[in-house]
Amino acid sequence: MRSFSENDALFPPIAPNKTSRIDVGDGHNLYIEDCGNPDGIPVIYLHGGPGAGISPLHRRFFDPDLFRVILFDQRGSGQSRPFAETKANSLWHLIDDMEVIRQHFGIEQWLVFGGSWGSTLGLAYGINHPQRCLGFILRGIFLGTQPEIDWFMHDMGRFYPEAWDRFIHGLPASEQHDPLASYYRRLMDSSPSIYIPAAEQWSAYENSCATLAAEIRGGGGRMALSLARLEAHYFTHQCFMDDGYILDKIDVLQDIPAVIVQGRHDVICPPHSASDLAKAWPSAELKMVDDAGHSALEPGILKELLSALRRMPQLIRK
Q: Least packed by Cβ within 10 Å: which of 33, 151, 173, 300?
């Protein structure tokens, strides 16, 4: 196993051993990467959003000598097709897709690694398929509840007022009382002249709130559409879960090792959700990072994620 010090950032760039496409039905075709050691500990990487997609940087969290990492673009995201599609796109479809991917690669059990929306999907997958999970490393916990959605849409801008002003003034004054419904209507419009500016405004708002250091960021680029449209779609449908679903069902994961990494100043996914999860899941370790916000690349968050990955083989064997 190659050495890795806490002062280093990420592992060197690697190319996938293999890329695949899987037709999962409903008109959706998923893009998948198989990386690292074919005989290593299997890991499934779950990106955020929903709609954010994977990138080459995500491969670099993992020691390629120790782990076999499966990364995939969820429905409507990244290189999966059709792009930014909301039809047949729900939490339950994504859970079923993970099982299709696991069986396709002949993996019996895997470590679940995900942040933000990836933590939601990872927890819901584990609740429905606990026997397939070796362990969990989760960051920036989002439990998919209505209060968390309301926080994102109405309250997190109190900490980033400049970003909030840009976001809310992307709507006419008559529609600013219900930004989710108003943005969702625009994001689902058939005209690019309507949905592209809405996607850029939504994505810029989220990007500007992602790190401890306040910085007004743009939301342009291809990913803005999938991120904004799919987040609005999932939020409008309450993430396709009954409120409180994850905490109500978490008992089935009690004997599976888990590390929860949470930024103390994460305003996108506030730390009370991570705290509530840890209280309901005594076998999980909660690592609260005092000098960090939401992003996985905040130095303190990254340090704890890499530490959890180094320790997980021992936790799995206990």
A: 173
